[in-house]
Specification:
single chain; about 450 residues; alpha+beta; Outer membrane efflux proteins (OEP); 4-stranded antiparallel beta sheet; 9 helices; 6 strands; disordered N terminus
Length: about 450
């Protein structure tokens, strides 16, 4: 009788983990939830979108401030010489009168005057003032404020869209990492199994119980599994690098994993509601912005009314007194009555854009609905593959148990045992792949119907 060898406990634990996949729910993925939260807080793309949101919020504050008074200070100083003058014949008009008065009074109290030439350009003159302006009626400001508000909402939706896409990428990368990690464990457990077989076969060969073929085959199997482990580890490392990249962490950071052994909840499989998609929300907001742009184009029909108040001082030689100080209050009205077709052309542009947005909305709705149906079909296919893999796993395990028993009793050759082992391990790998493919397909559905709740 050929001596049997012990199966490693790790191999049995992995088999039990996969075989009991329908015995647990998957609601306790606490580590994944924490990773998603971390990713939403640290991802560079999300940070860039938040900066854009902050910019739009400041633009809205600017639009609101346009309704408030504006205070400005301005001053001018003029130094002039030459140029046009105004001739004032003061001497010609007054000197004869003054001479007569001096003769009558017997004095020189009334001097002779010179004719004057006054520069039109003010010389050594300053004008300093505070100007306060206040819009009273301005439809353009109202529409500009409405547009800015909607642009903030649009950017908020854009941030949410980036977050939703990031959640999908994080979850997909996480499941790919778990898939690769489990594959490494399966291969390592199988390597321990074939190495034990190699040890036993070598001992049996030394005792003349078997020929060299079984030993050579077991040695080849060890080499093959070692190569498979290297490939699986590289796949695991690549999955870890990408996952850490999404979370903006060092690529070599370790990843804590959840014990996922069950299929995802299929309550959302038949839900065809795409109303929560951010793409549709963006189009809805864009339509509102376009309507405001149409109103802005039509605002020329409403006159603009404003008021201004100047408080200042103006005088020569930098004098400042009661005579130099002044105030000037005014009310202005501006009404664009005719623009040679510019206004009507601008209105027609916004109306054409509005029709384009409506057409695009219909197209995007159909596109998103088609995407959801395709994702649901992929999920159904993944579930079917998982069930088939579970059936194959059970069959291969039974087959391996039977062949192992026959081999221990000397009624089967090592090649048959090795074939049963390979079938069993392949079934474990396929069950592992099928399990996480269902989660990846479910993540795609969450993205397609926007059902994941983003905090």
């Amino acid at each position: 009788m050929i001596k049997s060898y012990q199966k490693p406990n790790v191999l049995w634990s992995i088999f039990l983990t996969i075989a009991l996949a329908t015995a647990h729910t998957a609601s306790a993925q606490n580590r994944l939830d924490l990773y998603i939260k971390e990713g939403l807080e640290t991802n560079q793309s999300i940070k860039q979108q938040n900066f854009m949101l902050e910019k739009n919020i400041y633009a809205l504050s600017e639009a609101k401030s346009m309704f408030l008074p504006n205070v400005a200070f301005s001053t001018t100083y003029t130094k002039a010489d030459g140029g046009r003058t105004i001739d004032i014949p003061v001497g010609d008009m007054m000197n004869g009168v003054y001479s007569t008065l001096n003769q009558l009074t017997g004095s020189n109290s009334f001097p002779q005057l010179q004719n004057q030439q006054v520069l039109i350009n003010p010389d050594n003159f300053y004008d300093a003032k505070f100007r306060i302006t206040q819009p009273i009626l301005n439809a353009e400001l109202n529409y500009n404020k409405k547009i800015r508000i909607k642009q903030v909402d649009l950017q908020k939706t854009e941030v949410l869209l980036y977050k939703r896409e990031l959640v999908k990428e994080i979850k997909t990368a996480y499941y790919n990492y778990l898939k690769a990690s489990n594959a490494v464990k399966i291969y390592e457990s199988y390597l321990a199994l074939v190495r034990e077989g190699e040890r036993v076969n070598k001992k049996l060969l030394d005792n003349g119980k078997i020929n060299r073929t079984a030993l050579v085959r077991s040695q080849n199997e060890v080499s093959k599994i070692e190569a498979s482990i290297v490939t699986a580890i590289k796949a695991q490392e690549s999955a870890r690098y990408y996952f850490n990249f999404l979370l903006n962490r060092p690529q070599t950071d370790s990843i804590l994993i959840d014990d996922i052994t069950a299929l995802p909840d299929d309550n959302n499989l038949l839900d065809e509601n795409i109303g929560n998609r951010e793409e549709l929300s963006k189009l809805k907001i864009a339509k509102g912005i376009n309507e405001d742009l149409t109103g802005l184009a039509k605002s020329y029909l409403i006159p603009k009314v404003g008021a201004s108040l100047d408080l200042g001082s103006q005088a020569f030689d930098w004098k400042f007194n009661n005579q130099s100080r002044y105030y000037l209050f005014g009310v202005s009205l501006e009404w664009n009555l005719f623009g040679f077709g510019r206004n009507s052309s601008r209105i027609k542009q916004t109306l054409a854009e509005q029709q384009a947005i409506s057409s695009q909305t219909d197209y995007v709705q159909q596109q998103l609905l088609t995407e959801l149906k395709v994702r649901q079909a992929s999920m159904e296919s993944a579930v079917a593959e998982y069930k088939a893999a579970q059936s194959q796993l059970k069959t291969s395990q039974t087959y391996y148990t039977d062949i192992s028993k026959l081999y221990r009793e000397g009624m089967s050759i090592y090649i048959e045992l090795l074939d049963a082992q390979n079938q069993w391990v392949d079934a474990q790998l396929q069950a592992n792949i099928a399990l996480f493919d269902t989660w990846i397909a479910f993540t795609a559905i969450e993205r397609a119907n926007a059902s994941f709740n983003i905090q």
